[in-house]
Amino acid sequence: MLRSKPSAQPSTPSHGEGQHAAAQRPIRNYPPQRSPLPSRIQPTRPVVVPTSSLADNSASAIQTPKLKPVATTSQFTSSRVNLRVIPMGGVEEIGENMTVFEYGDDLIIIDMGLAFPDETMPGIDYIIPDTQWLEQNKKRIRGVIVTHGHLDHIGAIPYILPKLGDPPIYTMPLTAGLIKKRLEEFNLLGRSKINTFQKDDVLKLGNFTIRFFRINHNIPDGVGIAISTPVGLVIYATDWKFDHTPVDDRPTEFDKLALYGSEGVLMLMSDSTNATKPGYSTSERELSETIDRIFAEAQGRIIFATFSTLISRVQQVFNSAMKYNRKVIVTGRSMINNIEIALSLGYLKMDPKLIIKTEMAKKYPEKGIVVLTTGSQGEESAALSRIARGEHKTIKIKKGDTVVVSSSPIPGNERAISSVLSNLTREGAKVLYYQNLDIHTSGHAKQEDLKLMIALTKPKYFMPIHGEHHMLVAHAELAKMLKIPDENIFILDNGQAVEFNSAQIGKLVDPHIQTGYLFIDGLGVGDVGEVVIKDRQVMAEDGMFVIIVTVDRKTGKLLSQPEIISRGFIYMKGSDDLIREVKHEVRKLFESKSKSEANYTLIRQTVRDQVGDYLYQKTERKPMILPVVIEV
Ligand SMILES: [Zn+2]
Ligand SMILES: [Zn+2]
Fold this sequence. Notes:
The strands form five sheets. Strands 8-7-6-4-3-2-20-21 form an eight-stranded mixed sheet. It has a seven-stranded mixed sheet with strand order 1-9-10-11-12-13-19. Strands 15-16-14-17-18 form a five-stranded parallel sheet, with helices on both faces. With about 625 residues, the protein is α/β, with parallel strands linked by helices. The protein starts with 20 loop residues before the first helix and ends with a strand. Helix 5 crosses helix 9. The longest helix has 20 residues, at about 600-620. The radius of gyration is 29 Å and the shape is globular. It folds into three domains: about 25-35 and about 85-280 and about 440-530, Metallo-beta-lactamase, Chain A; about 285-430, Metallo-hydrolase/oxidoreductase (Rossmann fold); about 545-630, Ubiquitin-like (UB roll). The chain has 16 helices and 26 strands. Helix content is about 25%, strand content about 20%.
């Protein structure tokens, strides 16, 4: 199914809405409120208060600003004194996470991620959210806060930031490093100011006062965000799990979560990726033991494939390499880049001498080598796939190698991974992957942890985020178990909003914000629309069928037999009868028309319809039919 969504359609029910009682409320009939474009004011100067200027570094030193609610005469008369929270992406899919907070004249954005295409989108590299609405309101954007360095949170920055007038970015140091690298690749470095903060800093952007709390994920420097607004405190917790023994030794700040709970939380927005999975998430530490065991048992080389952004996993590989006396060869461009960034910022702890160049490998026994590589999703051009196909410049698989694929497949990639695994085993490698060994632990909280987050923060309202609709619904069910009333749970579609007034009453509204997906194909951003995707789907499924006719400009008569070219539809040589019949039909069509009737647009349409029907009758296939009329 094509995922592209038409622009805002106020009361069209979307997929699966009936599944959840909260969505059955007449919320969509709420009078849609368009933001009256407020008069432009000078952007408020953002202030990052460094920790050192605070009297005490402990969590309790972070003073909640005393913000008085703005008085309004009536509820919901104008969105200017209400807080609106608008997910632009990330609540209908895993990926392209991006959320806007609006109060008065101020907008802040959290994350700008991309999504990966599925098999229904041939040729598409990435998908990013449509940001037309933000482009129209770019003068009001006070800043972009980025939670962590994964592509579903930073990947769209180079595509979107320039369209929004290069607003400043605020993020933690490692995330800043990864963003800078990405901007550099797009030749955009230096346009937006990239501000780094530490987790205890307080950031003031217009009407918003923002604090941070550390959460666990599989990349260091992930933070949750506590946003104090004039109508209340909103907690934004994405891509987190609780891990008491994380690889980076920086556990979740439960004290801050409890503190927010006691201050009073208006709304919690929380990660739904694993909301359907019961139990607690496993600690990275358990995985370390598994990796150690593999290192202890492998008799030859180890080839370890994972995401280049799973810095914690990379750290674990270095730890085990150190322990078992193996040198590390790094291959894959993004793996090399990310290790460089993480090392230079101190997020990877190891002796740089551990890494050796491929050419040096000969000096060491097979048992003394581990190759760290990208390609755990079976990506065609990634190093692991090239190794598996025997196309890698320096690394060839041999008997005795142990290949570890440390990630669970992103839906849609199973086939590609499977064929990489087959190629590797064919070459004699022993392959360990998630189905035969617990070699990956998710970075996202499961049900029991999700409940604990709700219990700690005690929110009045709840909005599940980061997931497909059914995951959000599962998360909502958990919130209901914790006594959050059904009507206080908001399951949104991209572009819808929750609006809170000064009395802290929240409602789901549809502000008619243009949302949808922009497809990125090569250098093109958004130039491949639904029509192009549809064409590609048709061609991929049933091929194409081109009919070329040459006509006399004066008489409108056919000058020669129609020509047929077909690709991916039928084998022409074996289908003489069919081709002859099509040519005959096309001839008849032209001969029945006199010059005066020769409206070629119409004729092309008729040829397309009639030939289409005929081919379907004969083959039950629907190729793309392209009639070409050449006048001479
Ligand atoms: Zn994410
Ligand atoms: Zn993440």
